[in-house]
Amino acid sequence: MPFFWKPYTSDVTQMIQELKAKKPTLEAEQRAGRALLWDKQLDRNQQAEFGTARVPQQAYVYGSTPEAAQ
């Protein structure tokens, strides 16, 4: 390997590294934001109830049912 060899980093990677260096709390803030919206505990029983209560969709969604056509 030559003496002048340096591993390549893209512009985007450099920008992210600079951003993290300027604001060290960035990753913790991102994780906290993710926890607000995505990291939720699911109730398996409630999910099963939602599945059983689901009403099947009609073949043609915008069509009227025979009862409504009269």
Automatic annotation (TrEMBL):
Q: Which domain of life is it from?
A: Bacteria
Q: Known Pfam families for this protein?
A: DUF3460 (PF11943)
InterPro entries to which the protein is assigned, alphabetical: DUF3460
Full protein name: DUF3460 family protein
